Amino acid sequence: MKTNSSKKSRRHDRLAEWFIRIGGILVIVAVVWILVMIARVAMPLFYPSHADISSSCSLPSQLKDIKVVASGSDDSRQQVFLLDDSGSFHCIEASSGRLMETIKVPSIPKGATRILSTDPFGKSTYNLLWNNDAVSSITIAFTASSDTSAKPSVSAALTANDDLFFDGHGPVQRAFVRRIEDKGAMRVDQLANGHFAVLHRLVEKDLLDNESTKISTAKIEDKLPGTITAAILDQKGHYLYAGTDNGWVLRWDVSEPGAPRLIDTVAATGGIAVTSLNVALGDISLAIGDAHGGYAAWFPVTSAGSGQDKLLTRIHTFPNHKGAVVMIAPSFRNKSLLSLDAAGVLRIDHTTSERTLVTLPKGASPSRQATLSAQGTALTVLEASGAVTVWNLDIPHPEVSLGTLFGKIWYEGYDKPEYVWQSSSATDDFEPKMSLMPLLFGTIKATAFAMLFAIPLALCGALYTSQFMAPQLKSRIKPAVEIMAAIPSVVVGFLAGLWLAPLVDKSLLALFTTMAIVPALVFVFLMFWRKVTTASPLERLSRGKEFVILIPIILFGVYLSWHLSGLVEASFFSGDFKQWLYGSLGVRYDQRNCIIISIALGFAVIPIIFTIAEDAISNVPRNLTAASLALGASRWQTAWRVVLPSALPGVFSAVMIGFGRAIGETMIVLMATGNTPIMSWSVFNGLRSLSANIAVEIPEAPLDGSLYRVLFLSAVLLFIFTFIINTIAEALRQRFRKKYGRY
């Protein structure tokens, strides 16, 4: 009978062992699988961009001898358009080179026969300077047929922009035309003598909606440091830029009628001729190319002694071209720039990330023109031989690099490089700022302050409960603390954000006085109590119940601090502590700050640390404490020098489990911090953690977009960070276990 029972027990033990092993393996597999699935979404951020030839053809024989002034393609890469200097718009099938249609440019100025230059404006608008010095404007639109039975066909249409039409008024080399929002239009001419003329045509309405046109003209006759070799007017018509043959770049403010104002004169290229200028999307960054292939992006920055004006500063430097930079064109989807050098090499760079996204090989003959499509997915290249190549561009995440994610970046509008998280804005020309450093910093900061609050309270409470508290009181206190862990984190965050934060805001100084007065009162009372109760019946009655006796003292200390805080604030801080912080120390107080998060997150972490630490301390063998007490040690000496070191592995595990709970917390941090992604150790400022940022941003992140994938990368970093911390904690726990021989 005993033999059968023994065999049955061993069989059950083996089955249990196999179940435990299989369960452990499945847990490991599940964790690794989760990490792999998250990483798969984030990895495309670092895939290289590439370009493939979508189609290539030669110009039809009837178009071999035309002079092309503008070219491009639709985003579906089915049609290529060419605009010649006679004002004819030719649509060519990209795959075969077949001429599909020829459209005459509408609204050709009277007496004009030839286009002298084109000025690209927006995604698909061209301003045309004619040989009679008049300027007209056309917009190209492509529409796809709705026939689903075959491959959809694309048709082109030209629309004249009458509000941008200007009559000729003198010989000019080049003209720029821009709309003035809700006011009219403006024209800037580069004159034959190298100077510029500015014309504003303002449309005004009276109370009866009757329109009147007011025209003002002005000439730019500032002394030039050299001969103008390149010029560009930004898309909003605010600033005119010009480069000279000896490397100077000038900037004028031409936004208002009247005399244009020269703002900048900078030596941009070290004496090398400026050969190309253009502005990136948003009209802030200026790309400058020179005759030796130098290529950089500049934008205005506040400088000492510049007054209200910001001065152009070199911000981003790109790899040099092999020849002179002859053309720079902006993308109208992001901060990318297309550049062409004299050797015929085309390249696409991104200003923010300073990445060279795509470099196209030189064709059989030099490239004459290159144009990005409106969506930035197609690049049309026209070679001198008449060959037309349409490239399919696959550049999914140009603004993301290791530098932009973890390094300081000098963003547009900033006076120095910064770590910034700002994923969206109200405008389409916004420069995404997706530095993960403020989020990593916020995660560490929230966890650190919460642990500073939670660890002393939890460990001291666990030590007192285990070694000093009366058994009857312990049987009630410990379950009550453990029940705290069952409170949903969203409830804790709700109370912290809507009740605790306003309360602390109203009584901030009272909180600090409480931190000073309450410990002092407790210390004084304990010294008095020790003298009064030594060797008396009161000592035996109060043993293990000291905590209950201290509750009235603590409440009295809080009450006293509350009333004294007003007197302290009036006497030392001019009646307003928060204003004194800002005026004297430059510290701004946010209502939802690290004080709130340390209390709220600490409240969530304390039950975990307390429970595990108390169990570890209580499991220390009683013979150790009995031996210590028998040798004459006091109860406190025994608890501090015998019990706590013996339970150190378990106590350390409790702290690390609490740390893991704090670092991954979402709802409390989300609701109690204000979610401000700033890097400051001040307890009076808020923060944004990785987990809270994922919760805030993921509902608005476009599927498979840069923000979407960066959020998944944040999850990977949080996963890895937690894994590293837990691994280090386990290694230390094993070391403590070997040292102290039990846990």
Q: How many DSSP-defined strands? A: 30
Total number of helices: 16
Helical residues, percent: 25-40%
CATH homologous superfamily grouping of the largest domain: YVTN repeat-like/Quinoprotein amine dehydrogenase
The radius of gyration over CA amounts to 37 Å
Question: How many domains in all?
Answer: 2
Q: Give the low-confidence spans.
A: none
What CATH architecture of the largest domain do you see? Answer: 7 Propeller
Query: What is the fold named in CATH at topology level of the largest domain?
Result: Methylamine Dehydrogenase, Chain H
Distance between the termini: 38 Å
Oligomer: single chain
Lateral strand order in the biggest sheet: 1-28-27-26
Largest sheet: 4 strands, antiparallel
Mean pLDDT: 87
User: What coarse outline follows from CA principal-axis ratios?
Assistant: elongated
Structural class: alpha+beta
| Strand content bin | 25-35%
Tell me the name of the CATH class of the largest domain: Mainly Beta
Keywords:
743 residues; alpha+beta; Methylamine Dehydrogenase, Chain H; MetI-like fold; 2 domains; 4-stranded antiparallel β-sheet; 16 helices; 27% strand; elongated
List the helices and strands and how they pair.
Elements: H1 2-42, E1 50-58, E2 68-73, E3 79-84, E4 88-93, E5 99-104, E6 115-121, E7 125-130, E8 135-144, E9 154-160, E10 172-180, E11 184-191, E12 196-205, E13 211-220, E14 228-233, E15 239-244, E16 248-253, E17 261-267, E18 274-279, E19 286-290, E20 295-302, E21 310-317, E22 325-330, E23 336-341, E24 346-350, E25 355-360, E26 367-372, E27 378-383, E28 387-394, H2 402-406, E29 421-422, E30 433-434, H3 437-467, H4 471-484, H5 489-506, H6 508-533, H7 537-542, H8 546-572, H9 577-585, H10 594-618, H11 622-630, H12 635-646, H13 648-663, H14 667-672, H15 690-697, H16 706-740
Antiparallel strand pairs: 1-28, 2-3, 3-4, 4-5, 6-7, 7-8, 8-9, 10-11, 11-12, 12-13, 14-15, 15-16, 16-17, 18-19, 19-20, 20-21, 22-23, 23-24, 24-25, 26-27, 27-28, 29-30
Helix pairs in contact: 1-16, 3-10, 3-13, 4-10, 5-10, 6-8, 10-13, 11-12, 13-16, 15-16
